[in-house]
Amino acid sequence: MWENVRLVAGGAVRGANSTGSNFQSSDVEKVQSSFTFWGAFAMSAAAASTLSALGLGGSRARSRVSLCARDSPSTRPHPRVSRSKCPPVRAAADVEVPPTDGLGEPGGPTQVPRAFGVQDGEWNELDAKLVEESQSDARLTYERSILPTADELLQSLAPPKFHLMGLTKDELKRFATENGLPTFRGKQIADHLYGPKPVRTVDDLTTLPKAVRETLKEKNVEIGRSEVHHIAAATDGTCKLLLKLADDRVVETVGIPATENGKNRLTACVSSQVGCPMRCTFCATGKGGFARNLAPHEIVDQVVSLEEHFGTRVTNVVFMGMGEPLLNVPNVLRAHDALNREVGIGARHITISTVGVRGSLEKLAAAQLQSTLAVSLHAPDQELRQSIIPSAKAYPLNDLLDDCEQYFVATGRRVTFEYTLLAGVNDSPEQAEQLARLLYTKKLASHVNLIPYNAVDDAEQFKRPTRAAVFEFRDVLESMNVPASIRQTRGLEAAAACGQLRNAFQKDPMDASG
Ligand code: SF4
To answer: Which of 30, 46, 45, 40 is nearest to 62 (CA)?
Structure first.
């Protein structure tokens, strides 16, 4: 039984209160947590509760949790541009197509440079250690995203760098007052960060007096934007940006435009880590090893950069890029909060995807997000799953599904499942039947997203399934009353699977400086 989460008997769904939050008063008291930002800040209940569960944010001045998670983009219009007035998505022909750098032709497999020490094979103690290290790194990264208190600043000779991107308007207002500025300056900064022309440097904060900008620079305050290092575009409009971070590491972010029922959509597939320690056998990112977690500003910037590139607003965000989001929970939640409140992405338009990290679903449930949790299964039994996802050895399928069930009971949010179809490995009708039975046994017969595999180098054992096999798999699931959809493959030419563009553009898997 999860201890950090208030469970709802019989799986009943709690009604949302007037603020749109699923919290009840007793929950609020339970999850009150502290977040300081050069003083005391109020953060969303969602982020606050999970961070509280993680034992973070408790060392500084306490503040009450604010309850105003938003469900719909329409409830949070952009400060300057209404969504209905968004310019149309640019046609693929307008988008720059990068050179292939001789490392891989569009549509073909890409090079997979390997980090030292990363090996195929069974999950081992070294892997478990790397996972632990990445979780510790997530805590440190989170701590660095919080402004130091005035006392801490006085004690340090050189203030550490601090990034404004990823802060909510309330936090920025507090930032302003802590710096002796009127509160409205915080709103002005928010408009500069999340408006139609997102700024890149403190000098670009032109509504602030020059003297204020100079003071901010002296205090080592930065905007926190990443540089667009390369762009790859597909004929269907999908566009992948390779972003260079401040330490020269690189991550990918993908923009996927689509039109549904006459409405334009732009989905951002964002990364949560530089690399990934989970080593899924079919994944280009997993082949390259893990470097570090992304900070909130680096996650939010991916969405802002895509909006800039496409010239339109992002409508949906999926945490399905490089990295395992549930190894970086505190920073993913902070970014989620800013994306929801300031960038205007409705919570129900945000999906967090995971292959499963033991203990993390409980923490996520404590956040009571209105977002979708997508769990990658990729196999209907433990033995096969473990051969595809080595980390499944440490978190067996049975335990993972039990936790999914608990997650539903605790949050009232149905878990959806991802299933990458690998020809001749996990795509038979019998396996579809086995999967349906498994989900029914666990009372989890919710939506299954089928993803035909995209080829990557160093994973020659896997092939893309035939169209007929994909449709048959879906039909079997649906005949057993498990709703299923086939994810349309987008941007194969842009090296669509996570990690492929990064691998195509660099010899060193983690660094773009060479
Ligand atoms: S599929 Fe996701 S969790 Fe697995 S190695 Fe790739 S990035 Fe990591």
So the answer is: 40
Radius of gyration (C-alpha) of the chain in whole angstroms: 22
Kindly tell me if the per-residue pLDDT of 353 is higher than 80.
yes
Q: Any bridge partners for residue 273, and if so which?
A: 293
Mean pLDDT, the chain, whole residue set: 77
Q: Which of 86, 280, 283, 498 is catalytic?
A: 498
315-330: per-residue pLDDT in tens? 999 999 999 999 999 9
Q: Any idea which residue has 């902070």 for tokens?
A: 334
| Residues in contact with ligand 1 (CB, 6 Å cut-off) | 276, 278-280, 283, 285-286, 322-324, 355, 498
* Domains parsed from the chain with CATH numbers: 129-142+226-505 (3.20.20.70)
Using CA atoms, how far apart are residues 385 and 246, in angstroms rounded to an integer? 37
Amino acid type, 13: V
Percent of the chain whose predicted confidence (pLDDT) is above 90: 55
505 residue type, one letter: F
Burial code (b: 16+ CB inside 10 Å, e: under 16) for 24-49 equals eeebbebbebbbbbbebbbbbbbbbb
Q: Is 94 a residue whose pLDDT tops 90?
A: no
pLDDT at position 7 over 80: no
One of 86, 171, 178, 252 is an active-site residue; which one? 252
From CA 148, how far away is CA 436, in angstroms rounded? 51
Q: What's the pLDDT at 364?
A: 95
Residue 498 a catalytic site member: yes
Query: Which atom, in ligand 1's list, is nearest to the CA of 287?
Result: 5
Helix axes 184-194, 169-178, angle to 10 degrees: 130
| Alpha carbon of 312 to ligand 1 centroid (Å) | 29
Is 252 designated active site? yes
d(CA 157, CA 64): 31
Q: How many CB atoms lie within 10 A of CB 422?
A: 23
Pairing of strands 250-260, 35-36: unpaired
Spatial separation of the C-alpha atoms in residues 290 and 115, rounded to whole Å: 8
SS percent in the chain: helix, strand, coil, step 5: 40, 15, 45
Q: Coil, helix or strand for 183?
A: coil
pTM of this structure = 0.80
